[in-house]
Each structure stands twice: as C-alpha cells, then as structure tokens.
Amino acid sequence: MDSKKENKMSDKDHEVSCSDCGFLNCYRQEARFPEFCPGEAVKPSELESVTREYCGDAEDARTAMVAAEVEGLYYGKLTRVEEVLAFAGRLGAHKIGLATCVGLIEETRVFSKILKRSGFEPYSVLCKIGSVDKGKMGLSEKLKIRPGTFEGMCNPILQAKLLNRWKAEMNVMIGLCVGHDALFCKHSEALVTTLIVKDRVLAHNPAAALYTSKSYYNRVMEQGRNL
Hints:
Blueprint: H1 3-13, H2 25-28, H3 38-41, H4 44-52, H5 59-74, H6 80-91, E1 95-100, H7 105-117, E2 121-126, H8 156-165, E3 170-174, H9 180-187, E4 191-196, H10 207-211, H11 219-223
Parallel strand pairs: 1-2, 1-3, 3-4
C-alpha cells in the first residue's frame, strides 16, 4: 500500500482524543464538552477516586499541591531553572540528583553551581557512566556514530541506580536521549523532572519542529513513522 494513502487512512480512522477537541472546556468550563470527550466517559466514582489522590498528606498529593503552588505563584515569571529550584525547595528536597548527557556537561556544571548557591546538595551522574562499549549491548559497528572506535553506551539504568544509592530526594534530567530518559524515569526511585530536553538539531528546543511543521520542518509531516 502506498505510504501516503496509508497515512491518510490512519489520520481519518484514528480514535479521537483530547488533541481533536476544539473546545478545551475542561480548563475553564466556558464552552461545552464534545461527545467524544475522554473525561466525560470516565465514571464519576473513578474520577472521585483519582481526585482523592491529590488530597491529604501522601507523597503524590504533596507533589501535586507544590506543583500547583509554583504554577500559581510564578506563572510566566520564572525560567525553567528557577521553577525547578522553587519546586524542589517547596517539596523539601535537599539532595538533588542530576542525570546528565555528556553533551550537556557544561550546562550541568552551571546548574550544579546554581543549586549549591541556593542551598541544595547536587550530585551528577553522566550518561556514559561505567564506560561500556556499545558493542557489549549487541549494537552493530555500522550503527555507531564513529564505526570502528570505542564508543561508550548511554547507561540510564546505572545512572538511576547510583542516584538511588545516593538517596536523591529529587532527580533532574539534563538532555538524556529519547528512550534513555524513559529508562531513567522507570528505574529512578525519586521523583524526576526535566530541565533540558535533548534535540541536537534545534538547540534543545524540540517544540520548534512543531511550530515550523508547515514550513521549514514540513518534512515531519511527510515522513512520520517512516523514519
């Protein structure tokens, strides 16, 4: 089947969800809910059960409350760096783990200094920790960035384990690759937030590809899953 025809079929036949909504009534309740609204399909008992998880003194409730406080107090006023500091401070986290990409080690050094001057105790673990060649995981030499040379694999599981052992009270990801960030979150025992999202092409601003998807980066609309 022609890939373009297949893409058109999938766009037409996909199950509608929140990204198809033109009302966004759940935010202010100033319009109406569409018939396909996933939220409207949730049973009242389930919604009430989930809502209770945001109340009280449990960890999830405290985290949600602190996040809402930071948003309410500093909406549009603080940078992401400052928001992370505000969130960690209000959460009562002192030991801040930094899971960093080797390509953003300079940014990590700066952020570590900022944390220290703000009274936190940072501890960083580089993505190449353990220095294991990619060949050990079964990767073909031709898929290395520089075939025929030693190339340390990213090790997000070990990053998480070392920060768990250090008893990090909150972890911050700084530029971990797509997929490696998912593994780090999966194995981290502490809460994880993100300071920098990896995008080597767009100076770590992945949203730019979405903003220009109809112009400079229209290729993302054409290639999609064919990558």
